[in-house]
Amino acid sequence: LLDGLPAGGYTLRASFIGYEAQAMADIVVRPGRVSTADITLNSSAYTAAEVEVTAGYYSAVKAEDVSVAAFSGEEIRRSPGSAGDVSRIMMVLPSVAKVNDQSNSLIVRGGSPMENAFFIDGIEIPNINHFPAQGSSGGPLGLLPVDLIRDVTFSAGAFPARHGDRLSSVMDISFREGDRERILGQADLNFAGFGGLLEGPLGASGSWLLSARRSYLDLLASAIDIGTSVAPWYGDAALKVSYELTPSHRLSILGLWSDDHNNPDLEAAVENDMQYYGRQDIYNYSGGLAWRALWNEHILSSTTLSYTGMEFDEEFFQTGSGLQLLLNDSRESWVQLRSETRWKMSPTVSLDFGGDAKSLRNRYDNRYDAVPDELGNPQPEFTFQQIASAVQGGLYATAVVNPLPALTVSAGLRAQYTEWNDAVSLQPRASVALQLSELTSVSVAGGVYTQALPLLLLAQDDANRRLDNPRALHGVVSLSHLFTESTRLTLEGYVKEYDRFPVEPDQPSLFLVDELSRVLSVNRCE
Question: Are strands 423-435 and 407-418 parallel, antiparallel or unpaired?
Fold first, then answer.
């Protein structure tokens, strides 16, 4: 505990015998507030001889660290152009492209936005944006307040076997804990909305953190009576409760909620040159329990149980003709159990193992009118009502070996199962990292990845049970050099090969998984 520090930004350096020194930048001390910093030190062999310890901003290269970028919450908050949005800061990475300025959809090394996974404190969240695209992971505005984020780790490919059912990327987000000393609060007003944050202690061994926001553009439009301008409105709330049962066992509760509403009428559509108008109400909610257990000095496990739901109530019409284009009344939900364990078997060998199981239950009552597609081809009217349920999951194991002090080898295998098409796939993953010198390292990683098709596509016809799960092969070579303790250059080359994607033979350029909101000729999928 450091008292009496003037307000401002600091860098904290930590070192301990038997561990690699580490530095954490961008620790902001605010007046009247308690700032916390969590620094993870990697264990390191040492001998009883004279040594010089120098803390750096970058941790040692690991075999799993290929194509990985890490950001602190403070880096995201002050990043130019990101507006505190965790997805938009990822768009500056060389491995990521954006769809357009109005969408947070991430195109990672050519992949579809549906191929990205998001985790908050180990709990999978289908979409972290307001006005989410059904069956995908994009939206125009992020729903996570930056003041809740502790750090973010983004993997753009060749990720290890603990992550499955995604073809392109994995984003791990960690929420910070609430203040354990006293109750604190703050109010916020920015372009995204207005709201506030409360936090405080929970007994002697816990804390809580609560955030809530709402947009205000619709309120301004009503107050100044600007007529037929389109003013969507949205809100979100987040909760995290942490409690230490014992020094070795910690429980945390996570809750996340968002609601999005848009209701442009025909008059507003004509005045604003909109092609479509109608009604849109979307709800996104997740909750879960996480248990982190240190069984002994060699075994650490993390287990989460979560529930996630999304509701879409949408009706859109074509401005010129008045034809109903879409009627979407969907309810999607899943229950998921995940467990990960790391066992340090010896100073040079560790074993990661675990698995996940997910039970999905979705209800669809959808109608798509007879309108041309993006290529101008006529499409028939299509209606489907379906209750679709499925189970999927996987098991994995990864061995990490250090045969030499400068060499790390990782080899893993994941077995993935999807009930809808009764598909089982074995997915090998491997990586090698070599420390050429104290400043330079080279890494090679690769693997096989599969992903189940969205139930919104699969539920439209029983024939879709014959569709294989899309597959991707990843290969990455990375060279990293540390010029100074705060400057590192990384060069990467990658190969990414896809197969087993469903297409329409008459329109092979129309990528079906990106057109889930349109009429799908499912009987012609290959």
Answer: antiparallel
CA distances from 351 to 159, 200, 307 (A): 16, 37, 29
Q: Cβ distance 178 to 481 under 8 Å? A: no
Q: List, for residues 2-54, the tens digit of each pLDDT value.
A: 666 676 666 676 765 555 566 666 566 666 566 666 666 555 544 444 444 44
Q: Which residues pair with 303 in a beta bridge?
A: 291, 339
Token representation of residue 95: 């491995």
pTM listed for this prediction: 0.85
Other Cβ atoms less than 10 A from the Cβ of 439: the count is: 12
CA-based angle 187:191:196, to the nearest 5? 15
Q: Looking at this protein, which amino acid is placed at residue 464? A: N
Task: Please enumerate in sequence order all residues whose Cβ is within 8 A of that of 213, keeping only pairs 6 or more positions apart, or say none.
Answer: 145, 188, 192, 193, 194, 195, 235, 236, 237
Give every CB contact of residue 276 below 8 A, 6+ residues apart in sequence. 269, 316, 317, 318, 319, 325
- The two beta strands, 68-72 and 349-368, are unpaired
Identify the bridge partners of residue 29 per DSSP, sorted by sequence position: 8
Per DSSP, the three-state class of 202 is: strand
DSSP codes, 298-343: SEEEEEEEEEEEEEEEEEEEETTT--EEEEEEEEEEEEEEEEEEEE
In whole angstroms, give the CA distance from residue 295 to residue 240. Answer: 24
